[in-house]
Amino acid sequence: MPRTALLVTAALLAAALPLSSAHAADDPAPTPVDRFEGEVPFASQPAEGIFTWGGDSDDPPALQLAARTDAPEGEKVLAGTYDISGYGGFTHDFAATEPAHDWSAHKGIRFWWDGQNNGKKTAFEIKDGGANGEASELWTTSFTDDFTGWKQIEIPFTDFAYRTDYQPVGGIDHVLGLTQMWGYAVTLPVGVHGQFAMDDVELYGKADQSLRASVTTDAAVYPVEEGGTAKVKLTVATTGSTPLDDPVTVTYRSEGGTADPGKDYTPVSGTLTFPAGTASGASRTVQVPTLRDKSAEAAETIPLKLTVTGAKAPAETPQVVIDAHGLPYLDAKLPVKKRVADLLSRMSLAEKAGQMTQAERGAVGEGADVTAYGLGSLLSGGGSTPTPNTAEAWAKMIDGFQLRAQATRFQIPLIYGVDAVHGHNNLVGATIMPHNIGIGATRDPQLAQKTGAVTASEVRSTGVPWVFAPCLCVTRDERWGRSYESFGEDPALVKGMETIIQGLQGRADGRDLKDDDKVLATAKHFVGDGGTEYGSSTTGTYTIDQGVTKVTRQQLEAVHLAPYQTAVDRGIGTVMPSYSSLDILGDGQGPVKMHARADMINGVLKGRMGFDGFVISDWNAIDQLPGDYKAHVDTSVNAGVDMMMVPYSYKEFTATLVDEVKAGRVSEKRIDDAVSRILTQKFRLGLFEKPYADTSGAGQIGSAAHRAVARQAAAESQVLLKNSGGVLPLNKNQKVYVAGSNADDLGNQTGGWTVTWQGASGTHTQGTTILAGMRKDGDVTYSKDASAPTTGYDVGVVVVGETPYAEGVGDVGNGHDLQLSAADKAAVDKVCAAMKCAVLIVSGRPQLIGDRLGDIDALVASWLPGTEGDGVADVLYGKRPFTGQLPVTWPKSEAQLPINVGDTAYDPQFPYGWGLTTLTKVPGGGLTTLKALGVAATAAQRAGADQAGRALVTKARLIVQQQTGDGITAAFAKPFADADHLSLTGRYGAAVAELISAYRAS
């Protein structure tokens, strides 16, 4: 409706309303928000309007203003259909150019809903404060569609809770003020094909103080050492921060719990009064003294029951907790094994099940279920962050969850995990490294370790002790949307880069895990995730991710299992199985989901390899197993999975696991093994002694020193594929014309798993784009689409490639291909036709460029270099030489895929290991020099002089590359690629011999 309609008199409104909207005599007249008669258009900010949104192109619902004879009000209703796989819904935002609305005089908001009786919950949120509807604070609640036909849904404002999983501006004041409101939004159910109709959204009822005022406590849990005094702070606050109109009284009494009054604590009771006129934010304190005795005890609880008059009471009863004391497992001087055995002997089956359970932070709200279910772990999925998304907020959030664990009987701390796959990538402002494919291109194990150390430092300083990294997948088909998470296609290369584990964890014996700059690492995804067959996925529209890996046992051992033995030898703390299925040819089992493969998890990983850490499932992965939910639990636990990532079904999992143990389908011995493994890592991390965040290193997050490591990694990851006429490096005196979609886009440069799961184009964190880096070094003009005049320039640099994606969603055939976009092709064509040009491909995998290769003077595989575009500029302008090598084979066509080093038929655009250099002194020589290098390399190999051996192979490789130029043939490519594999496995003499074969074929 027009905004002026909100100003009509109460009498006119009352006359217009149907009987169902009648109100009490002293209530204000209902205030219409939406009548859906066409007064509010389908439009978005800054105009007032209704608009849809969703997780992908299929998720936004289809809306219309439909005429209905049974409309509760007027002639039309808002009707729609939906089929949502991710998330989707619609919003009504008020105009950003007009003042916000004041809803504070009303009790709540209501609307008519045409029930479908589908039993699903629909989320309803309102938008409070901020600059406009898309920069406001979100408050949410929900209702259940368990009825048929029209029903008026009334929601008091007191039912709305601050949204913890997403806030567009990171939250404002965490207070529902109601004086500056910007509209509402509806989130529709996921996983059903449904329809809905809605009508007559309005504000109703009269707000009174008991609805506008609330009493809160400063915490939900108050741990105190035996004999100490807990101090519970009570605060009164009002909507709009106005003083109290009437008195508020709080009657308190210590009652119930597991502690004994008079023996463990001194009972307290009384009444506190906040008189009329008390300022919002005023506080009072209740003290609960505890008593000391001489016995060793588990933790004991003292609930402080509160009865509030004149205001809304706290959502929870605060719990005073007398800390566990005197028990052997609490003694840090004892060996970890003895501490684990003591604690395990005291735990109930339910407590053990809780330790085996990991929930998503967004599912547990403020964390009461951490206590109620004795949860062992929480995680942040991709993009699941506190608000605001700062290091301080991360630490505060995780400390709050750890505080909940202190209210459990044995005060077993949580282990909190995040997907820090290229830095602390969920945190805005963190140092973002190149994705693993770029790290593989560096061929620099020491640098890989440094990147891990920077990541660990930044992650641990926000209170997170555990990362779901590194990915040890051996990518065998670059149509896979996770290709960039792999170090490369050669298991020898993956093994070589596993120095990152020491960067993350420290020494292999685990002694450094307790340090404030180390984290527990996870080897994933066990086993064969990089080998899935194209077209084998059965997950939604995915084409290859979560599919089937078909291999012989020999291929499994040589390619996919090999990196895991290295990880175990390096002391990896946890391992995550793959979503994918494994089909070992000839064993008669066919494809079996990895979460069900006891032969691989119990037999190979824990048995033969000797892995002593714990196995964590992937996100809801057990739901993909055959059978009912009981079978999912039995199969995965018995297969050797120790902790289940069950983000939103943790209650069902814990209950089912307990039942299955009692039924004898899962043995208590198996449970004890799983829990022992989990507790061992918690003790090693020092969490029992220091459960809360040590933020002393937080000042180093995104620091110059950390970014210097990322800058070096970005520089070393650049692979120079072609360099005709020595176009690169650039000269700072040259006039450079820069174009292309990825020259000045930090989001495209950082890729998926950056701030959000799938990543996004644009600027969403702090960093330097490639263009910004270049501008520091030279005379640069930028035209993204190459529409600016191209005359008068010495050289062009066109930065093209992919936009962000992550697992599955990024699979080729699922809306993606390996071709440059039409705009990128046009930019390349225009610039390269006008001047000498260098093309940089910013992507997670090779792009098909062969049809334009003849027109391009220099070609660079830039991969996904992270936040430090300066590193790319460093090699472009010669501050550092190009030294990177291809970690995967660069194909000529998609029809060649999969193509990998070692294949019998091997005719790529550029072979595995290829990488030109801009070193000032490029090695020279011919066949005689190569033969001499071969003799020296063989001698180095026999002497165990690895560094010398690798240097000799590198020299030979550079000679051979210089000789062949652009004439890469199949006869050249195969021995050239094989040489790099041989060098990585320490066979330096044989590597030079293969390079000699390549030289002769060139």
Describe the protein.
With 1002 residues, the chain is an alpha/beta fold. The strands form 8 sheets. Strands 1, 3, 4, 6, 9 and 12 form a 6-stranded antiparallel β-sheet that branches. A 6-stranded antiparallel β-sheet has the order 2-5-11-7-8-10, with no helix packed on it. β21 (357-360), α5 and β22 form a beta-alpha-beta unit. The radius of gyration is 31 Å and the shape is globular. Keywords: Calcium, Glycosidase, Hydrolase, Repeat, Signal. Its EC number is 3.2.1.21. Residues 202-307 form the Calx-beta domain. It is an enzyme of class 3 (hydrolase).
What's this entry about, in short?
The protein is α/β, with parallel strands linked by helices.
Main sheet overview: 6 strands, antiparallel
The N- and C-terminal alpha carbons lie at a distance of 76 Å
What structural class do you assign from the helix and strand content? Answer: alpha/beta
Q: Give the amount of beta strand, in percent.
A: 15-25%
Number of strands: 37
Shape: globular
Q: What is the mean predicted local confidence, pLDDT?
A: 95
Uncertain parts: 1-23
Keywords: Calcium, Glycosidase, Hydrolase, Repeat, Signal
Protein name: beta-glucosidase
EC number: 3.2.1.21
GO molecular function: hydrolase activity
Characteristic terms for this protein:
1002 residues, alpha/beta, six-stranded antiparallel β-sheet, 24 helices, 21% strand, globular
